[in-house]
Amino acid sequence: MTSSSSRFPETHLSVVEAIRSGEPDVRRRAFDTLVRAYWKPVYKYLRLRWRVAPENAEDLTQEFFARAFEKEQLERYDAGVARFRTFLRLCVDRLAQNEYKAASRLKRGGEENMISLDFAGIEQELVHGDTNAGADGTHTFDAEWVRGIFELAIERVRAECITLGRASAFAMFERYDIRGPDVQDRVTYGELAAEFEVSQSQVTNYLALVRRRLRHHLLAILRETTVTEAEFRAEIREILDR
């Protein structure tokens, strides 16, 4: 029987706790996690729900996270009222509603806490993707949140594999699970074995290893971006049910 300690990641500070920390490194890591998990949901939500022009959506996205980096911004969060991502979406609503009052908005490229984000790339996603945000835009925000969580987990697995000298294992995973999600487009284990000059059993082992590490990092990120145990488990179900 699998123990609970192997099914769930070790304890992680939530971003709410970590951003309140007095240690700069802890705060910076939390801020990085928050940005990577949420910047696309925030930007697309502003563009599709609030119909904000691209250049203004860039500014507001930057401002949103600059405010989030301030300890006081997250102190209003009450885990008993809503999920953390719901709280963040409501913060975006407030920011959009008060846009005309934001005379002190951050200017691109001029502040220490400016974030390097691929706004041009995300605009291409909007052009080529489904621009139907639904009645209130929450579907877009939540779908992009799931995507952001997975992207961040994959980034961490890639970095880990490179550090541990397992870059080829990640490359197999990338070829099989990321580039070929559809059965008709997916390479076979035999083709991967020939390409990487290993046995098919090694391909099986490498893919299983990377998938386990992806699950580990996925759960760790969910732990970081939730506050309570109930919210953590609810967000796991939300992802698995999609």
Report on the architecture of this protein.
- It is a single chain.
- The protein is mostly helical.
- The model is unreliable at 1-11 and 103-112 (pLDDT under 50).
- It is built from twelve helices and no strands.
- It has helices spanning 4-7, 15-19, 24-48, 54-68, 71-74, 84-97, 119-128, 138-163, 167-178, 189-196, 200-224, 229-240.
- The longest helix has 26 residues, at 138-163.
- The protein is 66% helix and 0% strand.
- Helix 3 packs antiparallel against helix 4.
Structural class of the helix and strand makeup? mainly alpha
Overall spatial form: globular
Helix content: 55-70%
Poorly predicted spans = 1-11, 103-112
Q: Helix count, per DSSP?
A: 12
What Rg, in angstroms, do the CA atoms define? 20 Å
Oligomeric composition of the shown chains: single chain
The counted number of beta strands is 0
Beta-strand share of residues: under 5%
Biggest β-sheet description:
none
Compressed to H and E, one letter per element, the order equals HHHHHHHHHHHH
Q: How much is the average pLDDT?
A: 84
Cα-to-Cα separation, first versus last residue: 26 Å
Tell me the layout of helices and strands.
Elements: H1 4-7, H2 15-19, H3 24-48, H4 54-68, H5 71-74, H6 84-97, H7 119-128, H8 138-163, H9 167-178, H10 189-196, H11 200-224, H12 229-240
Question: What can be said about this structure in brief?
Answer:
The chain has 242 residues and is an all-alpha fold. It has helices spanning 4-7, 15-19, 24-48, 54-68, 71-74, 84-97, 119-128, 138-163, 167-178, 189-196, 200-224, 229-240. Helix 3 packs antiparallel against helix 4 (54-68).
